[in-house]
Amino acid sequence: MSVSFDFSGKTVFISGGTSGINLGIGEGFAAAGAKVFVISRSQDKVDAAVASIKAAGAEAADGLSADVRDHDAVKAAFQACAERFGEIDVLISGAAGNFPAKANQISSNGFRAVLEIDVLGTHHVMTAAYPHLKKPGASVINISAPQAVVPMVAQVHVCAAKAGVDMITKVLALEWGPEGIRINSVIPGPIEDTEGMRRLAPSEDGMERVRHTVPLRRNGQAVDIARMCMFLSSEEASYVSGVIVPVDGAWYLGGVGTALEATLKDLETHK
Ligand code: COA
Ligand code: NAP
Known about the structure:
This protein is an alpha/beta fold. It contains ten helices and seven strands. It is globular.
């Protein structure tokens, strides 16, 4: 991955950093010379991600398995990161859960699972990170989704969850700003080759239809999101905090609402 940023000597912690977009962000910071620490539930995924982040050029990489719903496990991961790599310059909170289902088909447990991973998990990551964040100077980024701002059928749980994540971003920008911590949300558009899009548009045809709903007429790559995270974490963005940044080819301006029609037809067929 070619990047024009320099994060040599900086420590980057990524929750959910073991696959898809968040792994791409880790590889981006790695190519810029950072030390990268990742967590997710599966130790196998952690091991594989650490290897690919090292291969991408990281000064060092490490990780632990931890479920963001378990506050103690998340605290232990931050402690391990601090012992290994010192204080955190960049925190990316990206762990999330999603499945397409209409509200009537979502059980209490299904709704709770997504809310607990996305909203409670983000709160756990923020509060466990806080003692280890560089003050002043840390950059925190929550990975949100278009569902936070555009209502989408079959996504009531994710819409509620990601809107909550963006409110955490805004409240912490107020609370942590005086200590020199900046916090922003990044909203990825439809990103190719990710679990999220495999769930929402499970065929090549589906992804092609989604592409036509994006004003720039292309689906995104993880590197598009990595570059925005590096910009927001750089000196160039030192006065930017509390904002929600779509990186989506202008998808959120309209296309999002219709993008999942093919998936919806499948849901209707199978209900
Ligand atoms: N439609 C309706 N309900 C669903 C569902 C679907 N497609 N998939 C899961 N659920 C429900 C389950 O039935 C269960 O409810 P129940 O106990 O009432 O039956 C509930 O969700 C929890 O499922 P479970 O598999 O036990 O939860 P988990 O905590 O192991 O996993 C998920 C959480 C469901 C979000 C799972 O999809 C996951 O781990 N996702 C992480 C990866 C991901 O979603 N990536 C995409 C980008 S965010
Ligand atoms: P992904 O590969 O499934 O990424 C999710 C990551 O979170 C994985 O590393 C997963 O690893 C981890 N995770 C899930 N539940 C967890 C938990 N309870 N505790 C700790 N880690 C957990 O999906 P993705 O599509 O790349 O999505 C990444 C982020 O981008 C998400 O925040 C998503 O909402 C957002 N997003 C994606 C798209 C898209 O086009 N894909 C668009 C907009 C927004 P384990 O399974 O090992 O836990």
